[in-house]
Please model this.
Amino acid sequence: MNYLEKRILEDGIVIDEKILKIDSFLNHQIDPKVIKEITSEFFDYFKYRVITKVLTIEASGIAPAIMMAAHLQVPMLFAKKSVPSTLSTDDKYSTLVHSFTKNKTSEVIISKEYLSPDDKVLIIDDFLANGEACLGLVDLVNQAGGEVAGIGICVEKSFQPGRKRLEEAGHDVFSISRIASLEGNKVTFVDE
Ligand code: G4P
Model:
């Protein structure tokens, strides 16, 4: 069992059969030791890939993404969920992301200035559920003509279809913790 999985068991709160709350160390208060342990595993897995940029979506992806970018010594870019007034339509790549958890569809954007056809992009996010956020980020990389080098996830809810959808689209998904079930008010990891 890795450090993130231990912390999920110790400090995670199962809200219902679909939602795990980890606000005490990842989604609200952030424990730097958790981020360090997660990104050292990401680094071991992705270190031989050519990666020019780490991409995530605000807000909770930013902490693991910035530390991973520091390991790789490349810039970190985060997609924004609100469009800055300083950015005109012609200057941004834009996609729609539907959140099943929040039952809301939002426009997500990045400035064209920061992604190019030369970029080999590692996508990092905190949770993988239905895969909507990651598929939106893949779409933004594709619009820029760049290449997705891999996808790193902190907490994958393997009982939801996110991994399958990303793999079917041809992406390599590496998750630090894979949750098989949240049934019975209990976290069960894949392979337990
Ligand atoms: P998807 O992107 O994989 O399709 O997931 P979904 O629409 O279900 O989730 C949207 C938001 O809900 C994301 O946060 C995601 O991180 C979060 N989420 C999904 N499942 C869980 C869960 O079990 N526990 C918690 N705590 N969050 C979950 P977001 O809207 O991007 O918010 P944030 O990054 O600003 O926190």
Q: What stands out?
A: Residues 85 and 91 are 12 Å apart (CA to CA). The chain has a mean pLDDT of 96. Strands lie at 13-14, 20-21, 53-57, 76-79, 92-99, 104-111, 120-128, 147-157, 173-181, 188-189.
